[in-house]
Q: What sequence folds into this?
């Protein structure tokens, strides 16, 4: 079969067939009387093998080795091709993500679209200082879609200084709903650091929607998410945070912050009496000498003295020496302060 017919039947151009011949990959084994290339059935079979291997991404050198070198290990090449394909897919997904972000920003001019792309590129820089500078330079300015771009960068950021700058920029963007659209789904991320960056940022956002998200997070399975939400809600004056704040005191996780927040809530809502009673009940549940009893007793010191005095008086005469010592000290401190 001559080269023109092979080209027609195989769909491979005559120019490529000549190239295969010149590099020794598929040289036709015959020639016509006029000197034209003539391909045998074996040549055609080799040609189709070449095309099949090239469709997997092998270079011509690798194809030739695969066909001619008995020691050639296809598994090594396939492994490399798998890695290369995954990297290419990742690049394509990143490009798709950029295009979707530009589209969602609704740019009316090319300058707007290019600004979004420039911001995304700066926030993906390998230099933490560039990422931080970019975050700080965008805070409080520009269209609302920027908040979503900043929030996405924040969730992926591992440098604590850059993450802090991004969190500050998101908070100052005055576009909480756009940021929440990115941050709320991240609360269910399989990666703990991503969940914690998300809730820490939501805690900085103002508005009823952010508050509702934090309230829902009080039941989160991730302790860090639950506790960050409780502290934020307590600062906002939400009594619904009290059970989790008490849990924090008992468990010793940010217990000082939790106790201070409980005290602030008690004074704000005039609930010191009931809150002191709840803490006293928690103390009663714990075994004598436990660290949790000590932390709970110390937390009573954050509440107004008038509400805690009867409880402290009882604890000061109890059998738990450590708790009695703390209760006695708090009573003395109350007397000194009048």
A:
């Amino acid at each position: 079969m001559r080269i023109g017919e092979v080209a027609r039947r195989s769909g491979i151009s005559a120019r490529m067939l000549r190239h295969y011949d010149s590099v020794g990959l598929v040289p036709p084994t015959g020639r016509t009387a006029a000197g034209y290339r003539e391909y045998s059935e074996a040549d055609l079979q080799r040609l189709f093998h070449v095309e099949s291997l090239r469709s997997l991404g092998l270079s011509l050198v690798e194809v030739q080795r695969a066909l001619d070198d008995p020691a050639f290990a296809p598994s090594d090449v396939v492994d490399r091709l798998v890695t290369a394909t995954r990297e290419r897919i990742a690049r394509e997904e990143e490009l798709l993500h950029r295009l979707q972000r530009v589209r969602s920003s609704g740019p009316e001019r090319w300058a707007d679209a290019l600004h979004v792309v420039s911001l995304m590129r700066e926030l993906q820089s390998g230099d933490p200082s560039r990422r931080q500078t970019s975050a700080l330079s965008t805070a409080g300015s520009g269209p609302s879609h920027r908040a979503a771009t900043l929030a996405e960068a924040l969730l992926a950021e591992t440098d604590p200084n850059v993450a802090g700058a991004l969190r500050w920029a998101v908070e100052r963007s005055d576009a909480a709903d756009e940021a929440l659209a990115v941050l709320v789904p991240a609360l269910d991320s399989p990666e703990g650091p991503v969940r914690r960056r998300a809730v820490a940022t939501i805690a900085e956002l103002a508005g009823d929607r952010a508050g509702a998200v934090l309230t829902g997070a009080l039941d989160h399975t991730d302790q860090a998410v639950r506790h960050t939400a409780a502290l934020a809600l307590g600062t906002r004056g939400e009594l619904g945070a009290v059970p989790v704040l008490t849990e924090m005191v008992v468990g010793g996780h940010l217990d000082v912050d939790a106790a201070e927040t409980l005290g602030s809530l008690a004074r704000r809502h005039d609930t010191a009496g009931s809150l002191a009673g709840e803490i006293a009940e928690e103390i009663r549940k714990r075994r004598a000498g436990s660290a949790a009893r000590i932390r709970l007793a110390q937390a009573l010191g954050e509440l107004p003295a008038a509400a805690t005095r009867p409880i402290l008086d009882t604890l000061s005469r109890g059998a738990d020496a450590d708790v009695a010592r703390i209760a006695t000290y708090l009573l003395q401190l109350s007397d000194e302060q009048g």
About this structure: The mean pLDDT is 85. The chain has three domains: 3-72, 105-222, 237-338. Residues 105-222 form a domain with the Leucine-rich Repeat Variant fold (CATH 1.25.10.10).
